[in-house]
Amino acid sequence: MKQDIILAGVGGQGILSIAFVLVNSADKKGLYCKQSEVHGMSQRGGPVFALVRMSDKPIYSDLIPVGEADMIIGLEPMEALRYVNYLKQDGLFFTDNTPIRVGGYDFERIKSAIEAYPYNLTVDARHIASEAGNKLAVNMVMVGAASPFLLIERAYLENSIRTLFARKSEDVIKVNLTAFEKGVELGMQLKFEKSTSGGKNLP
Fold this sequence. Notes:
Blueprint lengths: L1 E9 L4 H15 L2 E7 L8 E9 L13 E6 L2 H5 L5 E10 L10 H9 L4 E4 L1 H8 L5 H9 L7 H11 L5 H27 L7
């Protein structure tokens, strides 16, 4: 039992917060886990990505081979698409649909490329996060959307979100948990749709 995940976005979006939630949850469950990250020019909106590997057996490298990632979780569509060559043929591709237009690009072209993958979910996470109470909680929406496909049960993820924001107010914790829950609803819908349409390889 193992799972290799790529997290991709730009500086300030909370990629490393997602990595914390996943790694902390895996650790609490008793899984082996390794994390690697590249910050890039994060303070200028540059690319940031992290690799998270978890397994019930020891992991000897924090790197994910090309074509072996089980899942991409993106907070910026073009940045997520950069790593698609690492994704398995039946891998899962989740991304927010809001471009961070550094220099601008053709979003519809990017969207079409993402939708070419059979197991994809493009989410208006910024709108959902705003409904939850904070448009910056996009990262927690995306964790929620991916959660039905993770090796980690929901309770571990919720507890890790509480830990992540423990130094903040109770209101901040509540907003982020609400964003997570709204993402879960989308992920469960995707899991149902894929399972009923012959998605036999889904977790």
